[in-house]
Design a protein that fits this description.
The protein is mainly alpha-helical. Helices cover about 75% and strands about 0% of the residues.
Length: about 500
Amino acid sequence: MKSRCVTCPPSKIASASGFPAAASALRKLTGPSLTVPSSQHLIAFGLGVSSYLTTARGMTRAPKVNLTISSSQSKVMSTEATSSPGPSYSPLKGWVIWAVATLFVVYQLIIQNGFGAISDDVKKDLDLSLESTGILSASFLLVYSMMQLPVGLILDRVNARIALGTSALICGVLVYFFSQADTLLSAIALRACIGAAAAFAFTGAGVIARRWIPPSQFALAMGFIDFSFGLGAVIGDAGFEAWLAHGTWRELLRLMAIIGVVLGFLILIVVQNRPPRGSHNAPGHRPETVSLGESLRALGSSKQVWMGMIFYAGMCGTMFSFGGLWNIRLQEAFGFSVQDSVSLNSILFLGMGLSAPIWGGISDRLGRRKPILVIGGGGSVLMSAIIIFTPWAPFPYVAAVMFIHGMFLGTSVVVFAAVCEKVNREYSGAAIGIVNASGCFFGAVLQVIPSLLLDGKEAGDLAVFQRAMAIFTVFHVLAFIAALCMQETRPGWAREQQEEDD
């Protein structure tokens, strides 16, 4: 009498147990179901098991069981990897780190732009000519501009916290030694060294913004950096002028030296190099080491970079030179007092500083860069011509024109986003550096050119002074043309956009 198996077919049992050889033997000997196994059945099953175990070379567990466990573990790991958000940080932390780094920009502009307020005292104390004073003022920006690309490469390769903190400390020490200078040669050498140390400020703040601020807010962050730029310039102008009513320029620079050292230690304590891996703004791969040759080839072959350099040279190059030195002298030539001239120059920087984050925010909100640059370039041409060539006007009128001109100059901050969004993320430090270098280099050159055009005269008629200042309007025209030639971009980074497309 035969009895049937009340469970599943034996071939499926064998297969589920992970014995394919046994399953094959049973399929040949049985149908889809099996009666009570005979000795022939058992022998066939045993031979299949033996064959499998021999092939498995002594494995004590059925591989299918192992595979099932591995699959389960894999699913768990996959779920954990998907659901775990990875290291993250508060957005406020990123902005705090960026803000401390940006204090170095404020400090840089105080010691850079403040020279315009103390230049007459330095000139008298060191017995300098007008040309020598212009060279001394330009030495800062000349070396500063030459250092921008190397600084960008350094910040792409090393710890930004150490680089920024150390350079701020060195800057403070050098400012102290400059306060002790007693010859033209020593003053030029020290001011040039200050420019080299301060070269880390703007580019460093930009790199920190790139690492800690979301790409969709990068133009806004750069706008606030320009705001701090304007704030430092105003403090340098008005603050230095107010100090000179009670003390000497040497005492003032000693105080600035102490502030620089304190700032350096603050940066070393607070600023961090990069966000944690896996956070919203951290790269998903290990940052690449960028060589000088790679950066130069990538940046030099980009039309966007070249147009950005020309635009920034025409906008901020004139800001560095006109606002840093010649605007005060021009307003004096129009008949304003020294105090009123300094105030008008401060209003120019105030307009730029207040408008820069607004322009950056508008650009981020619109998701466009080029229209902002075109508006700024065209407006700066008009305002520059009015400031230089309009006959004498009352103080409120000139102040309003200065503020509007500063607002148009504030659009220049958007060029960093327009350039960075056209290059790979690994080149962002070098890209910021080389664009900033163009503005600084021509800012230094344009501090010297007007003194040459004035033929060394301490004072001439207003028409002669206006012709010498016309060079600034020419550079604004170049900036406007460059803005028209630039390509439109969208908030984000070239590599990230490429990865999303892939």
